[in-house]
Amino acid sequence: MMLVYQNPVYQRYFADPFVWKHEGRYYAVGTGPLGTVKDIQESDLTSSKINGEDRAIPVLTSADFVHWKSLGGALRVPEKLREKAFWAPEVAFHDGWFYMYYSTATVGLLHQIRVAKSLFPEGPFDDAGLLIGADDACPFAIDAHPFRDDDGQWYLFYARDFLDFGGEIRAGTALVVDKLVDMVKLAGEEMVVMRAQRLATFQSATGNVRKNFRLAYVGRALYSETRRTLLLFLQRRLL
Questions:
Q1: Residue 224 lies in a domain
Q2: Residue 67 lies in a domain
């Protein structure tokens, strides 16, 4: 029987949704408060107390992709990150563990990407450390997307700021990729996938790489040359 539904299928604030299926059920994580807030401010995207624990990042579950139920907060927030804002989580499953890649704002616009792990799809996820960002080399990093190649190698696509410029290259947010080591560390072999070529090209650069190696992204007024360069890069299969 076909399900009848009306959007939105989840009534609360739930930005940057990431959905995956595990053992017949759907799970979703996203950006948002753990409670119901009408007018969302960055301060609402922080941790909340649940049963005496600091939790963040809302997690949902569904049996049919239409009816969603909140399971609370996916991330068990470490003390040093309490009252920080949390953004744009995504989850990967590898060797029996779930890994959640997320961004947190340390001070102002200083954003870093971190990783947390759990044995269960709904969490709790325990922070496993910093991957990149919120320092002089990379002041802003967000929108991480883990991707597994056919050979089993995992990569992490993410958006980060570049402050250098020259010629047709502009300062601003760009899309890059690096290899993952044991799912909790970057190899330090960062490659640029896409750089801004004029002012305000990107509000954000978000990657979603699929089996056919195509990349979905959001932005403004991309040059056709940039698209050709991107497809060429993906055809090289990230080698």
A1: yes
A2: no
Residue 177: predicted pLDDT: 93
Q: Is residue 2 part of a domain?
A: no
Q: Could you give the percent of the chain with pLDDT greater than 70?
A: 74
Q: What is the pLDDT of residues 33-59, one digit of tens each?
A: 886 555 667 667 777 877 888 999 999
Angle (CA) 103 35 157, round 5°: 20
pLDDT in tens, 186-207: 999 999 888 766 554 343 444 4
Whole-angstrom distance, CA of residue 235 vs CA of residue 212: 10
Q: Are 30 and 91 in contact (CB under 8 A)?
A: no
Alpha helices for the chain (secondary structure H): 224-235
Domain count, the chain: 1
Q: Which domain holds residue 111?
A: 77-235
**CA dist 17 → 5, 57, 58, 60, 111 (Å):** 18, 11, 10, 10, 19
**Is 212 contained in some domain?**
yes
CATH number, domain containing residue 166 = 2.115.10.20
